Amino acid sequence: MDTSTQQATEIATLTALLREAEDHHGQYEPTAPPHHWSDWYAVYVLARQRGRTPEDAYADASQHVAEVLR
Q: Whole-angstrom Cα distance, residue 46 to residue 43?
């Protein structure tokens, strides 16, 4: 795979993960304490990249925000 094709694939993958995170964060936000969205998104995306399910990534991100706010 050439560099431009690999980069396009990585961009498409990250875009899809960010959109997925956006959808799940939308479910989290109404009941969440005040937080910066990037704290939640970062953990969610990394968890998904590491093979965690969307549900597990949601839990990981939510727990991370709770820990950051302590």
A: 5
- Look at residue 2 in the predicted model and tell me its pLDDT: 86
The residue type of 66 is A
Q: Is the dihedral of CA 66, 25, 51, 19 positive or negative?
A: negative
SS3 label, residue 50? coil
pTM of the model: 0.87
Contact 66, 46 (CB under 8 A): no
d(CA 9, CA 50): 17
